[in-house]
Amino acid sequence: MADLISIIVAKYNYWIYITLMMIGLYAMIAKNNLVKKIVGMNIFQTAIILFYVSIGVKKGATIPILEHGHGGHGHHVVHAADYVNPLPHVLMLTAIVVGVATLGVALALAIRVYNQYNTLEEDEILAQIREE
Amino acid sequence: MVWPIDLAILTLVVITSIGALMVKDLLGAAILFGAYSFMMCLLWTVMGAVDVAFTEASVGAGVSTVFFVAAVFRTSRRTKD
Amino acid sequence: MKIIGLIVAILVGALLVYAAADFPAWSDPASPASTYLSPHFIEKTMEETSVPNIVTAVLADYRGFDTMFETTVIFSAGMAVFLLLRTFRREEPEARHYRHVLTGVTLRVKEGGELPPSDDFERIDSLWTPHDLIIKTVCRLLIPFIQLFALYVIAHGHHSPGGGFQGGVILGASIILLAISQDLRTAVKRMAEKLDALLCSVGVLIYAGTGALCLLLGLNFLDYSALASVLHVDSIMARSHGILIVEIGVGIAVMCTMIWIYNNVSSGGKYNQGL
Predict the structure, then answer these.
(1) Is residue C36 part of a domain?
(2) Which domain holds residue C233?
(3) Half-sphere exposure at residue C253, Cβ-oriented, CA atoms within 13 angstroms
(4) Residues in B touching C262 (Cβ below 8 Å)
(5) Does domain A2-131 have CATH number 3.40.1000.10?
(6) How much of chain C is helix, strand and coil, in % rounded to 5?
(7) For residues C261 and C34, which has the higher predicted lDDT (pLDDT)?
(8) Residues of chain B positioned with their CB less than 8 A from the CB of A33
(9) At the N or C end, where does chain B have fewer CB atoms within 10 A?
(10) Domain, as residue range, for B59
């Protein structure tokens, strides 16, 4: 029993990220409305970013900004174990801003589709294409 | 990190994400997505990723929501699911 | 489609839960991701670049190529939105609306009609509502402070959380706030479309130009220590200053892309009536 609880405590974060990823993937495949699909895409994206950021977490570490930063170069010895891993943060920081740029492109495409077919529902658009 | 805060925010994140996809109004979905982004930002602050959290607070909770609202205003609020 | 989607999502989720069993335990300091490359960055950043915020240093210096092409991606996204939505066809609506600024009288001018000869008329949207005094005044008071804060975020990214991306987005958001609180016409008057597009490419040019300058001065592309002879500082401080120059470029590019995307999305590409 204690074994099971230790497994859950060590892993429950990962399971919730996987749940979020599943929600996003399901919305991208099964939702009928184009804006809902875009919301699903963003949820999928943030779930992956969350997973990356959580890789960098270390027990007992602080944020990746060096202390005694203003007092000259290198006089203070820095231990790597005191700071969280900054590398996933760098990768994900740019990913978020690129994410909002792709969101803009997706919304522009949705507006073009709406101007053409006067609806955002996928099945109505498909029915109109079949009629032509 | 403190696990009760972690667990509470993770639950809220899942609830807001499901809410954003279930609500029958696109403007409501946009606002709930903003709430989702803000919860995500809190989670990253708890994890010590301050730069990522700052970016998400300005980009995800701020500008993305404005883009969604603008796009919904240009198209329609109607949704079937 | 709903059932297929559910099956696919559950299959992928089951696969990932199975894979999660092999992940290192949550917040393990000895996990593989935290043992190979990141200790070098954490321990050497201060001596090599003199920047306390490790994220900024790695973002703009060690992984400079990555960030440069991310900026290019953002620029091309702005271009894509512009090319998708913008319509230049000048279709005149059958009636234009003008407002006399001094008295508040609204005129509806039919197609081909002429305005009375006066400079006091401003063109307004057909769905125009009088500006709310409270919203207008509060936004007017807030916008300068938002912009000041954004500049602080860009300039102080070396010592605190922040940098070009965050500051650029906040600067863009201040102009978007102006467009929301008044109307799109006012915002475009302050920040014309051509200026916006020009600054957007200037931001990318500052980044790439800094890299090319390093190349001309005899070192590798984006190796800022080459700037030491130009800036009259030692090579470590030159890397610190190089990061600042690059962050300014990123900030300008991101700000203009956000405004550009917002203007196009909110007006459907016509630039006449915004949100």
Answers:
(1) no
(2) 52-87+133-267
(3) 33
(4) 63, 66-67, 70
(5) no
(6) 65, 5, 30
(7) C261
(8) 26, 79-81
(9) C
(10) 3-74
